[in-house]
Specification:
- By secondary structure, the protein is mainly α.
- Helix content is 69%, strand content 0%.
- The protein folds into 2 domains: 61 residues, Helix Hairpins (Orthogonal Bundle); 102 residues.
- It contains 7 helices and no strands.
- Helix 2 runs antiparallel to helix 3, helix 3 crosses helix 4 and helix 6 packs antiparallel against helix 7.
- It starts with a helix and ends in a 15-residue tail after the last helix.
- 12% of the residues are buried.
């Protein structure tokens, strides 16, 4: 998604121009308006969210990435910090890296379970999507099922991102070696 084309503005648009373009596009795409839709309305809202925030706008202008998601590398680094913090707080005895690997394996198993649940739900929803038809212009049932499908697809994409994060954490852990040395008080 290109937020500038979504709002039909130039990439050097001022904050005021962005706001005016957003209001016009939101009015035009609102689901209650003829020709409007939830999808288009949300896309306009997302474009405005990206462009009204100077940091997100700069990120888009630099990388072309308009997503709300942090980069996998950022999440993996934070996850590694969480693992090591857990080791310190629990005063883990024994192989620290093995403890971290076991924690990662448990996270993977939980992730795989959730993925299977969401995939089964997705299969059921896809069957439901065509279950009712209407003679009118708007099929509320289908719209609700499509919204559920979108949410489930989002959950599955988050699981895929988590899989990449866990793989990268394991790669980052390869830079460490457990010396097995006992520790004592810190000395200055």
């Amino acid at each position: 998604m290109n937020p500038y084309s979504t709002l039909d503005i130039q990439d050097d648009a001022s904050d005021e121009t962005i706001k005016k373009a957003y209001r016009a596009a939101a009015h035009r795409t609102h689901p209650d308006k003829p020709g409007g839709s939830n999808e288009a309305f949300h896309e306009v809202g997302h474009a405005y969210d990206v462009l009204k925030d100077p940091a997100r706008r700069q990120k888009y202008d630099t990388t072309g990435d308009a997503s709300d998601l942090p980069r996998v590398e950022e999440v993996a680094a934070a996850r590694l910090v969480e693992l090591f913090t857990d080791v310190i707080r629990k005063d883990v005895q024994g192989d620290v890296l093995e403890y971290c690997r076991i924690s990662l394996d448990a996270a993977r198993q939980e992730m795989n379970t959730h993925e299977a649940i969401h995939q089964r739900a997705m299969a059921k929803m896809l069957k439901q999507a065509v279950r009712l038809d209407t003679v009118g212009d708007i099929n509320v049932y289908e719209g609700l099922v499509r919204a559920e499908i979108d949410q489930t697809q989002h959950k599955l994409s988050m699981i895929e991102m988590e899989r990449k994060v866990l793989d990268l954490v394991e790669t980052l852990m390869a830079d460490y070696t457990d010396t097995g040395a006992s520790y004592g008080p810190f000395r200055s």
